[in-house]
Design brief:
2 copies of one chain form a homodimer. Chain A is mainly α and 181 residues long. The first copy, chain A, has 9 helices and no strands. Helices cover 75% and strands 0% of the residues of chain A. In chain A, helix 5 (78-95) packs across helix 8, helix 5 (78-95) crosses helix 9 and helix 7 (108-130) crosses helix 8. Chains A and B meet through helix 8 and helix 9 of A and helix 8 and helix 9 of B. Chain A binds a DNA duplex (30 and 30 nucleotides) through helix 1 and helix 3.
Chain lengths: 181, 181
DNA sequence: AATTACTGCTACAGTCATGCTGCAGTTAAG
DNA sequence: CTTAACTGCAGCATGACTGTAGCAGTAATT
């Protein structure tokens, strides 16, 4: 692939992720315009709208998978893995803000990958509970949901907090809550 | 208004909220069909699609406002008001699952009301912090975002937990977090 | 029971997004 | 420099959604 074509492709994917996050019904014309290319250029690379969506999803899943690998959720100590995961996943969520849970439903392949990654996190939360890092009286599913939402909130409602500090706050809130002693 | 007309109107609003939450680009035909009425019937009550959206938003805002009033966020003790608010707002969020922050942007009137209600919650969180219920080292804006997200998670990812128990878990997580002592 | 409100159905025009095609011009790469 | 890749532009067909209208039939209200 020629270098300028690769640049355009990346621009379309990133712009698409951004606009589709704001409005999932954004037209391909709007994405193309915002990305600085013609509508037909997008159609050359992605035959259908679905294909474009799939490509955006796969790009996000690729980034997320790298974070999951590097966090060493299975081997590393719970506290270390947790912090590494949060610090890594926040930039991914900011760069690919599309709502995966909602939009991937019609893409079986992406949905399958998403569930695989979700299962890895479920297992990690279970391990954290087993090793005594979580209160035994709260359901793991709730802990998992809270972790997701804390990450999403920090990523999108506080876009200016740098990943390390963001991870500090998320992990601290996750474990200790916000109430005064 | 005739009784059956009122029933249909309510059905359209509730169905609209549900379908629009799943997919914000749901067509009026789909909403009408799911609500059990003809498309033109919906058009008679709501001249444009925007008008239908506005009506759904107002319905949600009405319910939320009632909860805010009854929680007595200004007068009641912080712990009481917090629990009352969470217990009340979860059913509202379940009944009107449309994402307010995202979809009300183009409706100035709804957006204004939403901000007013948001400000009341901001003030309440500030009061909680002032009265020592929250850790002094966390930004109130973060506390506020976490509260919102805990409510949303509980409302939609755990639809089977009854409001009282749901409020218990949300408030407990909010104040104490999920980490073991 | 009579009246009025309300609904379903059919039909039509307008708009917009999608998907495809051909061609001329530009630009990266050898 | 030459070539091949890539792009922008103009155009066209299709389908979906929106919004409006008229009319006959049904059901709530008095």
């Amino acid at each position: 692939m020629r270098a300028d074509a690769a640049r355009n492709l990346a621009a379309v994917l990133r712009t698409g992720a951004r606009l589709l996050a704001e409005d999932p019904s954004t037209s391909m014309s709007a994405i193309a315009g915002e990305a600085g290319v013609d509508r037909t250029t997008v159609h050359r690379r992605f035959a259908t709208r679905e294909a474009l969506l799939s490509a955006v999803f796969q790009a996000k899943l690729d980034s997320a998978e790298r974070v999951l690998d590097e966090a060493r959720l299975v081997e590393a100590p719970v506290a270390v893995a947790l912090h590494r995961y949060v610090e890594g996943i926040i930039p991914v969520s900011r760069e690919w803000p599309v709502d995966t849970r909602r939009m991937m439903q019609k893409d079986p392949d992406a949905d399958r990958r998403r569930h695989e990654q979700s299962a890895r996190l479920d297992a990690f939360v279970q391990r954290a509970a087993d090793e005594g890092y979580l209160r035994p009286d709260v359901p793991p599913a709730w802990a998992r949901a809270v972790l997701d939402q804390l990450v999403e909130s920090m990523a999108h409602r506080f876009p200016d907090v740098a990943p390390p500090q963001a991870a500090d706050l998320v992990v601290d809130t996750f474990l200790n809550g916000l109430g005064a002693a």
